[in-house]
Structure formats: C-alpha cells, structure tokens
Amino acid sequence: MRRDLMAECGHYDRWREDLELTLALGCHHLRYGPPYYRTHLGPGRNDWSFTDEVLPVMRDMGITPILDLCHFGVPDWIGDFQNADWPRYFAEYARAFAERYPWIRLFTPVNEMYITAEFSGYYGWWNERLASHAGFVGALKNVTRASLEAMLTILEVRPDALFIHAESSEHTHANHPDLTSEAEMFNERRFLTLDLICGKRISAGMFAYLRENGMTEAEYARFRSVDLVEHFILGHDYYVTNEHLLVSPEIRKAAGEVFGYAPVALAYHERYRLPIMHTETNLVDRGVTKRPNGFGKRGRISICCVRWACRSAA
C-alpha cells in the first residue's frame, strides 16, 4: 500500500509553518518535492492546485526551491518503475512543470535513482517489489532514462537549468577475502545510475551485467549520446547505513561508519569531477542527532543544503 507521508506529517495543512521554520533555520534553499502522484494524473493531465498555492509563496519568502520531481514512487496509473513508457510520460510532466514555473532553475529530476532501483527491483521492498538483478536493471534503466529525458525537456524551456542529482553515497566492504570480487562488483554497481546520466563509458563487466539483465545496446547507446554534465551538481546522501558489509555473495548488512563520509565522497569526486552538494545526512539516536565522520571543523566537505525543517508534533 502506498503512503502519502506529506499527508501523514501534516504538511498539506501546515506548509506555511514549515516554510517559516525553514527560514528560521537560516535556510534559503530547500529541496522540495511536490506530491507527484497527486499532480501527474495521466498523460498530459496535471493538477497544479497545490503547487500553484505553495511555490509562489515560497518565492515571495525568498526561499529558492530545488524541485524534487520524483521521490521513490510513481502515480498508480504508471504502476511501477518497470513500466518502459514511464520515462516518456515523466519527460512530458517535467516540461509542463518547467513551463508553468519558468522562474525555477534548480531541479532533482529523480531522487536517489540508485536506491529507487535497488529497493524496488533488487531488495523487493518498494513499488514492484522484485528481488533480482533483472528487476534491479529494469528499474535502473527506466529511472535513469526518465531523468535524462526530463532534463532534456526542462533545458528546452530553461536553458540555464541546473540539476542536483541527490544520490546515495555507497561503499561495500568484504567480510572475508573470498568475498572481495563480489564486493568489487557492488562497488562498481553503485556508480551505474550516475555513469549512465553522465554518459560515462562503463567497464566491460558492468556492460555485461546490464546486457545480461535486460538493457539493450540501443538503450545504452542513448545514454552515451547525450552530454549534459555542464548542468550537473553531484548530490551526496550519506547515512551510517550507507556502508555495507558483504557477508555472503549477495547478502549485505549495515557496516556502520568504517570509512566515514569523506573517503566515500572522495571516490565519487574522483570519478566524476563535478561540483558536490551534501544533500542528506544524519540519524537520530536517543534524541541526539549524530553527524557522520568527516564533518565539523576538521571535515574537508562542507554541508550546503538542508532538506526539511522540523516541527513539534503538537
């Protein structure tokens, strides 16, 4: 069953208060995800009633939105991330959004593409609830294609648009020397979504992995034919659960902070050489918010985005 967490947290009734709290925190940029399932009603059909109310107020308050167009789920009429028609419909939606709000420049087309594909197609937790490499690749190729096509349509409307690709920063550690090669596979696989939208040539092993699990050569060639990286900012989401311990060839558990954020982030920077924004972090434990290693006065990576303000449950 799908859940509307914006409804559950009361945002539809208290969005003005949420925006005021954002400013109270000193934040003037906000990653904001309008309810995709309530807005995109069908091909060429959109309900802008909520965004027409909220976004102009956000602009008047001096808050710059980073529009999160798809965050982990699709409307019921799409079904799930295995739907090969969804990238086309999503691109039409993205164009319509950019045309209706031409003053918005910053977008996250599809939030955490890698986690979306992995949790929906490989772990079997979300959406299509598949648990296979073929399920993962099926979701992966559609979320990355949707992101690519959405960016192209937005750029037709707003040529100076910037895309902040908030992506999970991952690393897998081998629990035993015999598992090193499998760990290396996961550490290559973590880059696939960004490799594809950046048009980056992937390794022979990853190309074979994609082909064996459902991606065609023509689909891969489409990604290689587009270069939009001048419009990209690489968003890093890092929690203490982002480092994994491989305990058997396909079973991983949370490893905690073995490396910490800075070394994991450095691997992404060295691969893509793109500007970095730290887009999500922190876990709350016993009422104390803990920051991952690599932050603070000695940290080399600065935090430049807060996603949500918090309010009391009263």
Automatic annotation (TrEMBL):
It comes from the Bacteria. Gene3D superfamilies: Glycosidases. GO terms for molecular function: hydrolase activity, hydrolyzing O-glycosyl compounds. GO terms for biological process: carbohydrate metabolic process. InterPro entries: GH, Glyco_hydro_1. This is Beta-glucosidase/6-phospho-beta-glucosidase/beta-galactosidase. It comes from Sphingomonas prati. The lineage of its organism: Bacteria, Pseudomonadati, Pseudomonadota, Alphaproteobacteria, Sphingomonadales.
